[in-house]
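for ur thesis appendix - Phosphoglycerate mutase. copy paste whatever u need, i formatted it the way the template wanted (i think)
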Amino acid sequence: MYGALDVPLCRETMVSQQGGYAALARRLPEDALWYSSPLQRARDTAEEIRRAGNFAPDVTIDDRFIEQSIGDWHGTPHEDFLSLLTLPPNPFWSISAAELPPAGESMLDVCARVSHGLEDLATAHEGRDMVIVSHGGAIRAALAHALSVHPDTALHFTIQNLSITIIERIDGLWRVVAVNELPFFQG
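the 3d part is after this line
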């Protein structure tokens, strides 16, 4: 279990996914503001997409879009993880949204963090397109915010690597345009 650990992407996989980065670059707005989680895997993904699309080199690192920290449970083998939980896990996520790992954060905490980040950026850059390269948990938190649903409900969404999820804020209200849209490419 690695959550917010800074685990690098496999270089061989990155090479094999060049078509995916190019397909994503074609799908993204040219004049968007770019943000990334501070984790290397998100930063590397942003760099590859930007390189494939010849976007300007500016990416702002924003800690609010990092993956859920599972604190002292980072590095626990999957087969041992369930024995650490105090609450039944969400059927589609490793832990319940209310579970608070020691020295970590609950998904409720992640939702609060991501919600503040989204509102701050949308207010500061009203009317601008933004690309945020992030992680499955943080994207689910963004969906919970946009839909005004409990985080356990948002954990039912599938978020795959190299997928696009689009949310919009219009007149202070959020809506979901797309979830887990995968690029069409030959790998």
